[in-house]
Write a structure and sequence with these properties.
By secondary structure, the chain is α+β, with helices and mostly antiparallel strands. Helix 13 packs antiparallel against helix 14 and helix 14 runs antiparallel to helix 15. The protein is elongated. The two termini are 56 Å apart.
Length: 661
Amino acid sequence: WIQHPTHLDLMYTTRNFLISIDPTGLAPGCHSAYITAHDSTCPDKGKLFEIPVHVVRTEQLTEGMKPTALHKLMYKPGDIQRHFIDVPAGATWANFRIKNLSTENPGKFVVHTVQLLHKKQVRTMENRKMMNLMQNAEGELNIPVKGGDGEVIELCVAKYWDNLGTIQVQYSLEFHGLMPSQRELVMHGGEGIKRVDLTATISHEEVQPIIKLKNFVQVLRPTESQVVTLGGRDLIPVGRHTYELQLQYSFTVAKATDLTVNMSMLSDLLYESELESQLWMLFDSNKRCVGSGDAYPSEYVTKLEKGDYIIRAHIRQEKRELLDRFTETPVLVSSKLSSIYGVDVYAAHSEALVGGKKFGNETCYPGKTVPVYIAPINSDKYAKGATLGQFLQGTATFAKDESGKKADVYTFKYILPECTKKKDKSKDKDKKNKTDDFVLYQEAVRDTNISWLAKLPADKQETQDLYNELLEKCRAEKSVYSAQAVHAARLQGLMAVTDEAKKEWKLIYETGNKVLGEIKETELLAWMGTKSDTRENAAEVKKEMEKTKTQLIEACAAVGDAALKEGISNGEEVVDDIYAKILKYTDPTDSKVVGFAVRYLIHNKLHAKALKFVVKQLDEKITKELMNQLIDLLKELKWDHAAELTSRSMAAKFPAAYPPF
């Protein structure tokens, strides 16, 4: 089946010769041959070069409702049978079925299928499965395929080497097809209703579309990026330097989830990449490495708890100018949704518009198009706090057949629009009341001064002067709530001093008592005990009371801490009263008061209860200060073994620096 010249006269320049290949008489399968060239003056030297020729002849599919390749063969241990099959146009999945015809021996088989797509990796359309078949038992494998002219799938069935005995099996590969008009299903929340047309070119198929959103994807831009020259360890002979691009990203996880990091520009490439290497490491807020990965992101799923995290990525190349192109490389961070969200699908545009009857079942015949209408989702739950480019990702299936649901699966992306903005009712009331603009200006200036009072350095004379000035204005206006806010802001500024030795505990004690003196607890308790507030200004009252409650709780914690630190007269009684007051308004594990609650319990020698509160704080966020407090409490309880174990783990939990790549 190969024709070629017997001699080639080659002198000083390139020459061509013709090869003719006629595969028409070859049996289905893979055929190989080699054309070798020898020196005519000395053939014993062996071949000078060879030209390999490979021809693959595909099998004919049976005619009928579903195109099928059918085989019945005898297998011995280690036998391998390869079949090359044309994938008919319009096919999107295939069902492989195998049956053990033996009544005596079980069978163990490996089924491997590969379909090569133009300029794509082998693993794109590769499937492998091991099947254990008892006597007269059947097995099934559902695989995705892509139909069209010149599309071929290789089916390899092998009997495992340690499966003794000869058995007869029958297997088939049956093709199905239900093709959407768009293989990449992307929907923007602002587009309205999206239409997708389904066609079946092979034979009729039952349609039952199901779309599920499973992941929330954030798009992160690097907060830091730098290109560094690597040291002598990374020199390429002779004396060629290698450069490293270091990228850093930061994000927050609101609740525990499974997370996948995807450097989308590079993640589908490994050895064929133009860059030498890619690697990312995931760190918590204490610089502890909790995960790492490189290409193929689906293989690196990390379980994360609530908290702040840092991703550090590195890319290497010997060309610095090439690395400069990647300094703004985005990273996709995909987290699993707490529950799968089903997208509504309709058979008619009018039904999708009014939220009427959803898509049931329909049969798609060859030559007929079945339209599917996808309605936008209520994305406010997910769009809250979303930034530009964030989207939900899931899967879409259109076949009713179970095998089609498993194999013929499409990625569905829903790009989140801007979250709905809540209407500020207070502005409408201001318009109705027609408050004087100058009064509004004075209130805005006062609120700005109060907010800055909490931020300015507490030990500066200018801060004290601003404090006194605001109090004078409050007395002149006879405003109780304003005076309360001024004292609370001053207390917040005093407590913001980071150096414990420089905190003015006596002044904190006095200011905290001023805040408590301004608050009308009877009104606050009456509001807290009200089940339903039907007043017109109920929302404004709620906002004001919540603010007052927060100020009271923070003031109680500050006064209690000052009493413990300063050692004031009748301090024991004051601290007990403060703790009892806190219990009336909130739980002692509240983040605003838990620090004081722990110190109060330690002061009263209730170390076990204090330990319980500290452990609960550590469940929320692990910090070095809390871990040191935990160790001290364990020592007080004489649990030396636990204290020793926790102390030894400190170096691993709180590294001094990020580890190198």
